[in-house]
Amino acid sequence: MLHAKLRELERAGTPIRVGLVGAGQMGRGFIAQVANIPGMRVAGAADIDPKRAEEAFKRAGQEPTYSLANGSANGSADASPAVTDDAGELARWEGVDVIVEATGVPEVGARVAVEAIEAQKHLVMLNVETDITVGVVLKQMADRAGVVYTGSAGDEPGAILELCDFANSLGFEVVAAGKGKNNPLNTQATPDTLKDEARKKAMNPKMLTSFVDGTKTMVELCATANALGFVPDTPGGHGPEESDANLLTELFCLKEEGGILSSYGTVDYVRGVAPGVFIIIRSAEGDVRETMAYLGQGEGPNHVLYRPYHLTSLETPISVARAAIYGQATITSLPEPSAEVTAVAKRDLKVGERLGPIGGFDYYGFVRSKESAGGLLPVGLASGAVLVREVRKGQEIERRAVELAEGSFVAELRERQDAALAAAGAGTDSG
Question: Which Gene3D superfamilies match (predicted)?
Fold first, then answer.
């Protein structure tokens, strides 16, 4: 059991040493949770505002130092954690075994990921925006380096994959997967319209905006799809309203069966059942289906497996431990992604304007199949791009309508990933 392994590490005085990048809401929760876990220490944290990292450690009852050289090099219980504003330095630091990336910024996530992998650190990506943009190439790099690259337990995609692994291990067929949406959907939300709510929730307004405008949901569905080889049944998902998880089987079945789906193998979200995640499984006729009915799981052939919670960064230590102890990932994309999140204009965009970050004033995310996304701008490449063509409000932004941010590292990685996928596809076609 994982807890027993962690206790062994604690007794041996060799805890897993973690470096955290990003001390926002998710990072603060992670630091506080790890403080209660035997066999694991947050040895250092990096943030563009190191005072936030310092405060997070102090809230967890620890007194940090502002020098990695003076920080915990062995992860011992009485060592001081280190704080820095240099994420790359933390990723390269010999005092950590695992890096957790929690900024939510694709450009930062890509740079930190490569630094960590090249330094042969395991990497837990609590930054799904980066993963859906360049996760395939990062996984390839990690495999070659002999380290683990993984998404995080506690994020909806990780929680969904755990349900899928459970169902698949029992021989059930998973035909649909999804999540509840916490906030009412408003694609026109901005940091200005949400500033009061963000203040009350002690959240970054841009982060809250990415939740409310649907971008975060689209990103999470994309990561789930890429890990399962699924696609959205319709661009953007159906997003029906339903608060009773037991009724999801009536929605997520084929149209000819009375549901909303054109085909199985799909991801979607529900305006309700939040903050839960779910999968729809199918049982074979006979004793299995009869047993499922006896157990209160419905008459079939479709049944819902529902988890009514996900604990975000509080669960991330599970992925850290799996990676460090067993060399296992929680969730990664398949070698060929099946979905994409494109950028849709929140307002009329004019030539010469520079696009802001995710969760800003300019665009929101929209999930669709990878096959149908050709020529459109991936949301993870949008920040810093300059418009060379006008785009009307509500239109998906074409890639040719922008010049990507000069010197963008995530764009460079994406170009490498796209070239590798194209070469692999050409090789398959010629074979």
Answer: NAD(P)-binding Rossmann-like Domain
